[in-house]
């Protein structure tokens, strides 16, 4: 009879999580496809946001694969989506604490960034944290974008991974110091 692995203790440090997440098939041209494998060692930025159906599909697929690939209690996802359309299929993950309800406004974005910043200052992390931004709230500005870049700099070494759609935001095009988060694919 096959043996099940022992349950993961919530009091222990994060075990070595998977380093990649397959996200399906990439199709850059009508007649060209290849398996898409995303490195979890880096952050991921996408130039379009969730208003593009391809980006919406990628974010949903990645969310599902991240949740499925990590043992219970080893990952938390914080979400931002000004459209409110990206993460609806995952609303059952909110009450159990695996995922936050998506925030849609600038104040919500600020609260999520503050939560993530506080989490990065903790001495020991019991889980990985993923910040997924499907679309930026209206009136988000360079101050919030600079905070995201600072978080990206801390990033994977502290168990934090960023998935940011709509980067760079139009207001950052031509701003050399904020063109892209460090350690991003």
Molecular structure report:
The chain is of the alpha/beta class and 185 residues long. The chain has one domain: 3-Layer(aba) Sandwich (Rossmann fold). It contains three helices and six strands; from the N terminus they run βββαβαβαβ. The protein has helices spanning 53-69, 106-121, 142-154, and strands at residues 20-29, 32-39, 44-46, 75-81, 128-135, 160-165. The strands form two sheets. The chain has a four-stranded parallel sheet with strand order 3-6-5-4, with helices on both faces. A hairpin with a 2-residue loop joins β1 and β2. It is globular and about 50 Å long. The protein starts with 19 loop residues before the first strand and ends in a 20-residue tail after the last strand.
